[in-house]
Amino acid sequence: HAFDEAYRPQFHFTPAENWMNDPNGLIFFEGEYHLFYQHNPFGTEWGFMHWGHAVSTDLVHWEHLPIAIYPDNDSQDKDFATAYSGSAIIDENNLLGLQEGDTKTMLAFYTSKDNGQRIAYSTDKGRSWTKFAGNPVIPFDEQDDARDPKVFWHPESQKYVLVLWRMPEGEKSKQGFSIYTSENLTDWYFESHLAGFYECPDLVELQVNRRSDDTRWVVFDGDGSYIIGNFDGKQFSPETPKTQGDFGKNFYATQTFNHIPDEDGRVIQLAWMRGGEYPGMPFNGQMTFPAELSLKTYLEGIRLIRTPVKEIELLHEKGQSWEEENLIPGLDKNLTKKVKGDCLHIQGIFDLKTVNSFGFMVRNSKKAAGIEIRYDATKQILSCLGQGVVLAPEDGKIQLEILLDRTSIEIYGNGGKAVLSSCFTAEPDAKELVLYNTGGELLVKTLNIYPLKSMYN
Ligand code: FRU
What we know:
The chain is 0% helix and 49% strand. It is mainly β. It folds into 2 domains: 18-309, 5 Propeller (Tachylectin-2, Chain A), CATH 2.115.10; 316-451, Sandwich (Jelly Rolls), CATH 2.60.120.560. A 6-stranded antiparallel sheet has the order 23-34-25-30-31-32, with no helix packed on it. The chain has a 6-stranded antiparallel sheet with strand order 24-33-26-27-28-29, with no helix packed on it. A hairpin with a 4-residue loop joins β10 (145-154) and β11.
């Protein structure tokens, strides 16, 4: 593969070929980030779920590896040969007794439609995988539907925690996330159930205002929505109502990396950009760019903030910068006319003054107007591709950080308080960019635009 097809993202992860959905088993181990993913190796549509696999040392350049986990049966029905979503951890204390030499065992927890929650293990840093002999570790209950185990170590209670989507007694109204604990990774005890959630659970501790002595736990639903609260190792107690996590068109099945070293300390999240289109491409699906999560206190309470990981700078080409420029109404003729490209990193701070609306148009050409990123200052709405989110200025200013790739765009407003993640298709050769102002006075405090290199170069 040259990985240079017209609709192939250049810095968002895609499978080399065929279908991809949820990120699975995200883990950092011995210098490598592992990204497993729901994968159909037989075609560009969903079915026959396997775990595809890739590794990276910097969250930006990914190396494709062979399929890690195969379905547990060879059913010809695409719904029944399954290794569904799940997570990975390191068996630090060799509890399963499978370790070979000094390399700790990597465990993947996944769902099989056949019989419940299962373990596969690797004694060679994720390169080859074997099914655990004691499977399933959590069999299905009668009439129960359950999937997507997220496992992590909880130091305070000295136990492993597993969060699982479940539909007790097959009743839709009861579906939600069940919490289990274990001391040995194979015997799991039910602790509590939180109703009102659907698919791909995540539960993670985040710092508030970057202080290690003030934390909350955040539970994520499959669609990226979240609740902030507390977790005692057995039960989650909500402090906030459920809040939407992303306001774009294509954000689903989030997961955070396990086992990030303490000296790094980041909580890094990926999501599947569900619903993108890739006409004529050999692959179908892309991940969001990895993002760092944290919590911040605002007048209205504690909120999640999400920002792209700083490693994006590894792809920066020589950029252009502006400072303290008044943007007069109309299409800008000076600031951005020299900038072109379909892979860009844009960072700007805009003093709203008396402006009505302003924004960028990307992927323009002589033939067609491209994609509009607009901030409406009268309505306080940030929008793109038909989706919008309310975003109040802070100190009279709006900050925008935009990651533009060939078939996706992520817009982070005000330091990641509001994020829109969306997929699109555009004429491959439409690469012009303009900045515009619909009326009133706007001061561009700072603006940096970096063309981004391809991860494949
Ligand atoms: C979410 C999901 C998961 C399931 C997987 C199957 O997109 O439906 O709940 O494990 O996809 O591919």
